[in-house]
Amino acid sequence: MSSNIVTLTVADDVAVITVHNPPVNTITAAVREGLFTAIADIRSRPGVAAVVLVCEGSTFFSGADIGEFSGPPKEAEFRDLLRRLEQLPVPVVAGMHGVVLGGGLEITLACHYRVAVPGTRFGLPEVTLGIIPGAGGTQRMPRLIGVEKTLDLIIGARPVDVSTGIALGFIDAEVQGEVKAATIDFARKLVHDQAGPRRTWERSVDAATATPAIIDRLSAQAKKHYPNRQAALTAIKAVSAAARLPFEEGLSYETELANGAKVSDESKALVHVFFAERDTRKVAGLPADARPRTIARGGVVGAGTMGGGIAICFANAGMPVTLLDTNQEALDRGLGVIGNTYDSMVKRGRLTAEEKDQRMALISPTLEYSDLMSADVVIEAVFESMDLKTKIFKALDGVAKPGAVLATNTSTLDIRQIAAATRRPDDIVGLHFFSPANVMPLLEVVRTESTAPAVIRTAFDLAKRLRKTPVLARVCYGFIGNRMMEGYAREAERMALEGASPRQIDNALEAWGMAMGILAVFDMAGIDVGVNVHRANADRYPPDPSYYQADFALHAAGRLGQKNGKGYYKYSPGDRARHEDPEAVQILRDTARRLDIPQRDHSAEEIVERCVYPLINEGIRILEEGVASRASDVDVVWCAGYGFPRYRGGPLFYADTIGLKTVHDGILKYRDQFGPMHWEPAPLLARLAAEGRTLSDWDAARSSRLEDPS
Question: pTM (2 decimals)?
Answer without folding.
Answer: 0.92
